[in-house]
Amino acid sequence: MILLGSTGSIGTSTLEIAERFHIRVEALVAGSNIALLKEQILRFQPCYVCVATEEAAKELDHPRVFWGEEGILEVIRRASSAIVVNALVGFLGLRPTTVAIEEGKTVALANKESLVAAGAFIDPAYLRPIDSEHFGLWYLLNGRTPERMTVTASGGAFRDWPIGKIASATVDEALNHPNWSMGAKITIDSATMTNKLFELLEARWMFGCERIDAVIEPKSVVHALVEFRDGATTAQMANPDMKLPIAYALMQEVEEPILPPVDLLEVGSLTFRPIDPERYPIWRIKEDLLAHPERGVVVNAANEVAIGKFMAGRIPFGELSKLVIEAYERFDDAVPRSLEEVFEIDAAVRRWCETAR
Ligand code: NDP
Ligand code: MG
């Protein structure tokens, strides 16, 4: 496989699965965590390596080191592996997804931002979901046609906070996720519920189903539910660990135990709650966004700028979703008609969000 984002949360879990099932790692792509990448290079002996910058590349002693976005694309083109695991974070992951597909490769996709920003221009036949809810949906669907699909949300760091306190929460508080250990960006996206909004778009494009919604299940044991026309609903349950979705995305069928099974008596009870727009203001644009899913590019670009500002201490937590909603309203006619227009709109929204607020 070609592994993009090898030093991240999904990337390191992917390497655990690769090691256990003897899957050859042909290329490792990371950003700036050179110390960890060096260990990975020694262990997995990849043919190609790529890092974020030229300076970082100089720190590596390897015959084929590339850098930057062009470097990532070059590695995808040169490497012969049929599978690209895209575990990059953010809009940076989009070009690698489309180039991998152009090369005829299958993309095991963790980088949901690819679909959020440009789902209309990505053929889902080349994709395998790594997101736990989408893996759950795929597992349940088994080739059948759904009537409705539901994904669950943990509720993130502020699920049980008094609503009045959330707007002034700190970065450390937003990074304190109750159930999952993940990278910083997706953990903040979980606190605002933007992650779940993105997952609705991800499901929309991946499975072509328009009747899709989310509910809070605080234990993160039930990941997805599919309702069929006959009135039956099936649910996928598993302990919260990304290694199960990753193993399926890499191998399609898994006959060995990956996780300990769910112990129902230990779980005891399950509760489901609606997502309250008072607590999660981003949820106010859900219906409109689902009716115009191509506008995901605007939400994604604004969200990436807003998260950058929040992490840098330039805006409080409460302004994060406000900025995204403002951008969504301001760019209400921005509907990309091609992949290139996705990049143009992304750049325009970022420029505006940098100076607004
Ligand atoms: P992390 O932040 O843990 O990892 C991101 C990876 O991308 C790191 O390897 C990082 O490298 C690399 N990277 C960042 N910038 C660059 C760059 N400029 N060039 C090359 N590589 C770069 O994120 P996660 O693993 O949590 O998430 C990855 C994706 O998977 C996201 O889209 C997320 O939404 C999705 N996802 C994650 C889940 C999870 O459980 N973590 C669950 C479902 C989906 P470095 O650290 O070396 O700088
Ligand atoms: Mg998820």
Structure commentary:
The protein has 357 residues and is α/β, with parallel strands linked by helices. Helices cover 45% and strands 13% of the residues. The protein has 17 helices and 11 strands. The protein has a 7-stranded parallel sheet with strand order 4-3-2-1-5-6-7, sandwiched between helices. Strands 9-8-10-11 form a 4-stranded mixed sheet, covered by helices on one side. It is globular. The termini are far apart. The protein binds NADPH dihydro-nicotinamide-adenine-dinucleotide phosphate and magnesium ion (MG).
Helix content: 40-55%
**Rough shape?**
globular
N- to C-terminal separation?
43 Å
Helix vs. strand class: alpha/beta
Stretches where pLDDT falls below 50 for ≥5 residues? Answer: none
The gist of it:
The protein is of the alpha/beta class and 357 residues long. 45% of the residues lie in helices and 13% in strands. The strands form two sheets. Strands 4-3-2-1-5-6-7 form a seven-stranded parallel β-sheet, sandwiched between helices. Strands 9-8-10-11 form a four-stranded mixed β-sheet, covered by helices on one side.
